[in-house]
Specification:
Layout (H helix, E strand, L loop, with lengths): L1 H34 L7 H4 L1 E10 L4 E10 H6 L1 H11 L6 E2 L8 E7 L2 E6 L2 H4 L5 H15 L7 E6 L39
Parallel strand pairs: 5-6
Antiparallel strand pairs: 1-2, 1-3, 4-5
Helix pairs in contact: 4-6
Length: 198
């Protein structure tokens, strides 16, 4: 009789042990499954970064940033040219407008101290629709985009290598480097009213 009781106790202990082991193993498997991501991050995604490009919003009559995901390698090779090319291409958001005139080409871009010299083709002036508000939007879409880079504090515009040019109506001249416009500096226009200051 004692042997049957001892045998029953041993069987019961073994069953309890198996039950505990099963539940512990099941919990571990669930935890492992929870940790594994559904989709692994690709090497290409790891190399991407977001840049802010400024375009004109016709509804709010202001410049607004549009985030753009680009390959870090492209940005490292020639960041100023890459950002300028993206501005020339125009926005992806349908509610935003292109600010750089069609046909504009980049002749040369060079950083001197903290001023970025951007030499553009004559189409930058010749193909511009005109109007002080639109001209201001064009200039500050470039300035606001480029001064997002920490080493750039101002932008000097040249046309086919020549300094001191201006838009056709002569209201906005390129004599001096342009810096980010503050809200207090706005006179007669709210083009940069939503400007994010550096």
């Amino acid at each position: 009789m004692k042997k049957k009781v001892i045998f029953s106790i041993i069987i019961l202990i073994i069953l309890i042990g198996i039950g505990v082991w099963y539940f512990l193993t099941k919990d571990n498997e669930e935890q492992i499954n929870e940790i594994i991501p559904e989709e692994e991050i690709s090497e290409e995604q790891m190399r991407q970064t977001i840049v802010s490009l400024y375009f004109y919003n016709t509804d709010t009559k202001s410049l607004v940033p549009e985030g753009r995901l680009i390959d870090v390698k492209e940005l490292v090779e020639d960041p100023y040219r890459k950002l300028m090319e993206l501005l020339i291409e125009g926005p992806q958001n349908a509610s935003l407008s292109k600010t750089i005139p069609d046909g504009t080409r980049i002749n040369k871009i060079e950083l001197k101290e903290d001023t970025l010299y951007i030499d553009l083709s004559a189409e930058f002036i010749d193909n511009h629709s005109g109007g002080e508000e639109q001209e201001s939007a064009t200039i500050y879409s470039i300035v606001n985009t480029m001064t997002n880079l920490t080493e750039v504090n101002s932008v000097k515009i040249l046309i086919d290598g020549e300094e001191n040019k201006a838009f056709k109506d002569n209201k906005i001249k390129f004599d001096d480097p342009f810096v980010v416009m503050k809200a207090d500096d706005l006179v007669g226009t709210n083009v940069i009213a939503n400007e994010i200051e550096n």
